[in-house]
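Reopening this one. Same input as before:
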Amino acid sequence: MQQDSQLLDFIFMLLKNELANASLVIVKGDANYRRLLGDVYDGLRLHHWDFTTNIADIVCYLPVPMVALRTLKSEIAVGLKPEVSYLLLSNFSSPASLLPLLTSTDN
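Same output, byte for byte:
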């Protein structure tokens, strides 16, 4: 088990060093966006960041600037202004209930 952890640490170090040579990291897709934010299912529920959390605070482990491109397919989102987050959450029972509204193509 410790050997696996050491291998992962080594791979992470190599990847971080490789990324440090880049000018910009581009992350594409909803699944990769969720991975970037560490969207984790613990067997009971999905853990999400607060909508107002600054994405830079979450991805501070990246050694270079990053841009994330995605089509919203899940209810995880960060970087919203507090008033936008309040408006959304005061009109919907949970972040999951926002998904149909945010992914609608009827507009």
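So the earlier flakiness isn't reproducible anymore. For the record, Residues 2-19 form the longest helix (18 residues).
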